[in-house]
Amino acid sequence: MHKPIHYFSAVALAIALWGSPAAAQQSPIYRQGWIDFNKNGKKDIFEDPAQSVEKRVADLLSQMTLDEKTCQMATLYGYGRVLKDEMPTPEWKNKIWKDGIANIDEELNSLPFNKKAQTQWSFPYSKHAGAINTVQRWFIEETRLGIPVDFTNEAIHGLCHDRATPFCAPIGIGSTWNKALVARAGHIAGREARLLGYTNIYVPILDPARDPRWGRVVECYGEDPFLIAELGKQMTLGVQSEGVAATLKHYAVYSIPKGGRDGDARTDPHVAPREMHQIYLYPFRRVIQEAKPMGVMSSYNDWDGEPVTGSYYFLTQLLRQEFGFEGYVVSDSEAVEYLFSKHHVAADYKDAVRQAVEAGLNVRTNFTPPENYILPVREMVKEGRLSMKTIDSRVADVLRVKFKLGLFDKPYSDPKLADKGVHTEEDEAFALQLNRESLVLLKNEKETLPLDKKQLKTILVTGPLAAASTHAISRYGPSNNPVTTVLDGIRQHLGKSVNVQYAKGCDIINPGWPGTEIVPTPLDSTEQAGIAEAVAMARQSDVIIAVVGEDEKRVGESLSRTDLALPGRQLQLLQALHATGKPVVAVLINGQPLTINWEQQNLPAILEAWFPGPQGGTAIAETLFGDYNPGGRLSVTFPKSLGQIELNFPFKPGSHAGQPSSGNNGFGRTSVNGALYPFGYGLSYTTFAYSNLMVSPEKQSPQGDIQVSVEVTNTGKRKGDEVVQLYIKDKVSSVTTYVMQLRGFERITLNPGEKKTVQFTLHPDHLALLDKHMQYTVEPGEFEVLIGSSSENIQAHKSFTIVP
């Protein structure tokens, strides 16, 4: 799981950190193969790398005072958020962290869109690594016990650091359906974290995006728990193979606030117990058991009236006793405070703190000083309201992670390695490939795409997202990377061979939005002129590429939509362009499924690009003009109407049934049946055929595996990717199960005429259900294997039987 720790001699360590052998004389605590953290002149058990982690934790814990223990229970938010100093100052000796701190979050990372967080220490990369060493050195040398800090950071689409390697949004990562690609993304994020001095990164998000109105759909891998678990596992393994902790979020049942409302709501999920386990907890259970993450972030919502961060059931019984989690739990910001201020299950803030600690929370995080949490904990121990046994247990979990990370053996990074190993040319090429594989072709009538540049003289690129760039950078990802817009990408790709015209056409939103989604208003003269300009250019063009959708101010954290159509006047723009009779290709930049019914019915081609990374314009241009064949698949269902929501996969029998054609409420008068685009859907510039589905054995015990294989052939004229999807149907069961469930997928690349055999193994866990006693059970009976290219495009099926 973790890379072996290499122990430095005192002189070698000093040279690596401070540049000269003379620096080794600055502090006598660095010894041959160990560090005298408590400065007592002897090698204590906790300082001895040869001792077991448990012995080291117990020894250190026995030497800690109450003040030192409680300091290991809180986060200090980094410079520009809570910490006001870029570097340690003499005043730190008077701060609460004079006795240590659990972690420092987003330290000196130059957070995008936050001028207070801009710092000279974020770049070059070596300068940042040296700065983190300086902060770490203060805690090791200037506190009594010298307990190292866990430096945490966000990383959901690349490390949240100045000029780190940028990935596309998680919803795009999920649309790749490529496990190897996601594992490599984890490796890159983990390596960059380690080289820059971060030791724990908040990734992956395992929340199923079941309601497309919810603002954070853009940050999720998709709606299906199996897909999320498989990709989340690979991301976690990739990160932790680099010796950095991965912290899963947001545990639990966070992504389905009532009505999909985010912002000040973010609560009251209407989720039944069995659904909670099978949909919302499934990814967490799988990733914890199979990838052993060292961190989990507790969410600030409730479930069935019980706030998660104050819940012993969620934080101890489920997480540790059932799932086997052995890391430490950090709270989402304000989760502790909400027990008092939002959920009203605590009489005051102090009691909220007590509930969280007793429930199993290890470390409190918020954008307020750490003493706001640490001091009430100390008071309650002295008052007898919190037991020292509980405190010791919470602190031991934090120390255990720090020992496993090697912080007590090699607490400093080597700055010389950072400049060579962060955001390399190879990393940039990978990020571009990730962007390519995230693209999903939604419609391609009469092979409109790819466009043949040899046949084109003039192209109009239009739409409010054509020259936009801010969607490529977010609060939780890398900052300050140059962005290639779609317009830039097309111009660079075509060079001087084609005349590329540009007109914005309209803004992303109109005056009065989002109120105008409820009560529409007419276009004003400025809006009419903008569309008229685009139409005039369209008439002079051979083809129109319209880049439409949303930006980071329309979808994201604390944002939710009242509608899922294109916002503002974008539909009017598309309709006016379509009326010219020229072909209109729509490129969607968006973070959630959109109800693009008119667009699907009238435009010849639609390419879903999600929120691409800074190289997105290049990937989109390559795809539009045929240098790349899109192979991404939807990881979320696109509904036709808000009235259909929730419409998602997997689903129970009858829950997606259509309107009756006769009888009460019949005649199809209110009928909007089926998805606009189903889960797993996506087109290609080539075609594929399935054959020779094999399932073996045809009869198996509940404890045995089932082997499945199928042959897939590229029957078209272009090299392309197919995502082979395996679904399982449980024919008869003791409780109602889903119509079918995703239980395997592989993205493969085939040349024209090439055939590959794709193999899957179905384990007992893939067939298990939660029975009437809420126990996972593989019930005897008939199961059906369904293989295809989407949840609705099944190409082959075969049955097998589980016998008692």
Automatic annotation (TrEMBL):
Transmembrane segments: none annotated. GO terms for molecular function: hydrolase activity. InterPro entries: BXL, Fn3-like, GH, Glyco_hydro_3_C, Glyco_hydro_3_C_sf, Glyco_hydro_3_N, Glyco_hydro_3_N_sf, Ig-like_fold. Coiled coil: none annotated. Pfam families: Fn3-like, Glyco_hydro_3, Glyco_hydro_3_C. Residues 1-24 form the signal peptide. Residues 722-791 form the Fibronectin type III-like domain. Gene3D superfamilies: Glycoside hydrolase family 3 C-terminal domain (3.40.50.1700), Glycoside hydrolase, family 3, N-terminal domain (3.20.20.300), Immunoglobulins (2.60.40.10). Belongs to the glycosyl hydrolase 3 family. This is Glycoside hydrolase family 3 C-terminal domain-containing protein. It comes from Chitinophaga qingshengii.
